[in-house]
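User: What would this chain look like folded?
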Amino acid sequence: MASRKRTLLKVIILGDSGVGKTSLMNQYVNRKFSKQYKATIGADFLTKEVQVDDRLVTMQIWDTAGQERFQSLGVAFYRGADCCVLVHDVNTAKTFDNLENWRDEFLIQASPNDPDNFPFVVLGNKTDVDGGASRVVSEKKAKSWCTSKGNGDIPYFETSAKEDVNVEEAFACIARNALKNEAEEEIYLPDTVDVNQGAAKKGGCC
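Assistant: Here's the prediction, encoded as structure tokens.
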């Protein structure tokens, strides 16, 4: 049985509550920004078809609640992710400090085959606030953190969901990295599912 490549890319956005995860996703998918802040309960996702080089892929972007009580969303939620996006607010140091916890949480729950090379992308959001006067996390500091993780640099983008700054560019990078990860693992689709074999494949049936 020939294997076939998936064209569905699962992207998970993690970060503290209020850093703008939902706003970034809505700006990218729906080209909208809402000033009304509504906390995400549990998890939600949007899909968008994108062209990555010569391939048409569907990105399934999962937005998670940043509150700690929702942090343990379960293995099924994280499993099968092709890329993980870590978001912090450049105006709040704690949200940057917590990136380490979110990254660790993802690697524990998703348990990717090659944790050191799993694609992460970091977004420093809300660069528009006070014209940048109130920011406390410098671009240099964020990039330094990205360089220190895994084998090689994690891509870093400074974004404003409100002003639509760098959102398209960031998600283009996310899609490309997700596709690169996905392409290395072709998925075998047999006529009948062998439970043990299925469990060994990228998170199995879940």
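The two ends are 22 Å apart (CA to CA). If you want, I can go into more detail on any region.
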